[in-house]
Amino acid sequence: MLRDSFFSIKEMRANENGEAHFAVRLNTEHRIYEGHFPQMPVVPGVCTIQMVKECLQTTRNEELQYTNIINCKFPAMIVPSMVQELLIDITTIEEDGAISMKASVKGDGHNFLSLKASLKRED
Questions:
Q1: How many domains would you assign to the chain?
Q2: Does residue 29 sit within a domain?
Q3: How far apart are CA 33 and CA 107, in angstroms?
């Protein structure tokens, strides 16, 4: 879990149509940055993907697991010394227990992640 250590949710809005919007704040002092990378810390892509999932879990109040990452693009790096606040937008559709998700992570006028994935409830 990265929530409340690597990042914190500052604001959350969700509706019944499967749309959720989050404002999150990065913890620039987290030890992950010691290894990624000490001279120029950047948020690891896998952590960005995990933040999206943990935000979605918050709206659903259940544990989820990625089953398929259909499309994942990182147009820019998140440099926490320059951008601490991120906006995460998620849209989901659920059919027969499968969850289809589209998400984006943006901040300071940049798009950091575009993600299309499938998830399921964790067993």
A1: 1
A2: yes
A3: 19
